[in-house]
């Protein structure tokens, strides 16, 4: 099973600041198979990034993804008020089961 | 509007059964695989099961094997999760999600390797 470890657990930042979220896998995974999701309280997750760096439809360009192998990063260039949420990385289909990281909460400082 | 809407959650005693439904609209359900994902209170996301677009293939997380059954009725645009022998640790919000990959009419894979559409979830309390 591929285990994804996200860091930090919580990121305390102010609007306008840059957020850098990390996702590390215990085995090499294909870059095409790494996705990022945003989840707000009481809502289902929303796809932000697939293929490690491809923004989903309607996702603002302040969100960007990068990385390869075992290390991946989600960057939010300038935090807006609506960006404070929990973010999850996911490995898709490298092996069963599909797995998610434990999440990074981006909170207002 | 592309959407998934779960229903069927509720409070149930340990050992009992529950069937969840997920109604799809706004897209052609029959070309997509579908997943169930759960989230225990205050916890992260945990994949439960997947079913292929035509229902011929199904895969489960270890905790779901032998107790949960995923199924679909494309004529009704609906996905199901039959949960038997429920345990306290099955308490969670259950989400259905669309697999972003699909085969076009020529058999080529299109879309994205991700779960691109999610429902709002239904709460199951055991």
Describe this structure in words.
The complex is a heterodimer of chains A (109) and B (126). Chain A is mostly beta strands and 109 residues long. In chain A, 0% of the residues lie in helices and 54% in strands. In chain A, strands 2, 4, 5, 6, 8, 9 and 10 form a seven-stranded mixed β-sheet that branches. In chain A, strands 1-3-7 form a three-stranded antiparallel β-sheet, with no helix packed on it. The termini of chain A are far apart. Chain B has 126 residues and is mainly beta. Chain B is 0% helix and 56% strand. Chain B is built from no helices and eleven strands. In chain B, strands 2, 4, 5, 6, 9, 10 and 11 form a seven-stranded mixed β-sheet that branches. Chain B has a four-stranded antiparallel β-sheet with strand order 1-3-8-7, with no helix packed on it. In chain B, strand 5 (45-51) and strand 6 form a beta hairpin. The radius of gyration of chain B is 14 Å and the shape is elongated. The chains are: A mainly beta (109), B mainly beta (126). At the A-B interface, strand 4, strand 5 and strand 9 of A face strand 5, strand 9 and strand 10 of B.
How are the elements arranged and paired?
The complex is a heterodimer of chains A (109) and B (126).
Chain A: E1 4-7, E2 10-13, E3 19-29, E4 34-39, E5 46-50, E6 54-55, E7 63-76, E8 86-91, E9 99-100, E10 104-108
Parallel strand pairs in A: 2-10
Antiparallel strand pairs in A: 1-3, 3-7, 4-5, 4-8, 5-6, 8-9, 8-10
Chain B: E1 3-7, E2 10-11, E3 18-25, E4 32-39, E5 45-51, E6 58-60, E7 68-73, E8 78-83, E9 92-103, E10 109-118, E11 122-125
Parallel strand pairs in B: 2-11
Antiparallel strand pairs in B: 1-3, 3-8, 4-5, 4-9, 5-6, 7-8, 9-10, 9-11
């Amino acid at each position: 099973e591929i285990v994804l470890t996200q860091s930090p657990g919580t990121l305390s930042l102010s609007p306008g600041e840059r957020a850098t979220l990390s996702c590390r896998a215990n085995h090499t995974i294909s870059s095409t198979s790494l996705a990022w999701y945003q989840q707000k309280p009481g809502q289902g997750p929303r796809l932000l990034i697939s293929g490690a760096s491809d923004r989903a439809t309607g996702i603002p360009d302040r969100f960007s993804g990068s990385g390869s192998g075992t290390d991946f990063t989600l960057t939010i260039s300038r935090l807006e008020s609506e960006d404070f949420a929990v973010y999850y990385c996911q490995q898709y289909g490298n092996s069963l089961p599909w797995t998610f990281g434990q999440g990074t909460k981006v909170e207002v400082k | 509007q592309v959407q998934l809407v779960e229903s069927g959650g509720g409070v149930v005693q340990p050992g009992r059964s529950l069937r969840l439904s997920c109604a799809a609209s706004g897209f052609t359900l029959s070309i997509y695989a579908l997943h169930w994902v759960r989230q225990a209170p205050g916890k992260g996301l945990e994949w439960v099961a997947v079913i292929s677009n035509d229902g011929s293939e199904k895969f489960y997380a270890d905790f779901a094997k032998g107790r949960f059954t995923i199924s679909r009725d494309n004529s009704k645009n609906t996905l199901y999760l039959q949960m038997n022998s429920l345990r306290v640790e099955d308490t969670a919000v259950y989400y259905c999600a669309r697999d972003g990959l699909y085969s076009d009419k020529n058999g080529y894979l299109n879309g994205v390797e991700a779960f691109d559409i999610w429902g709002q979830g239904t709460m199951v309390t055991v």
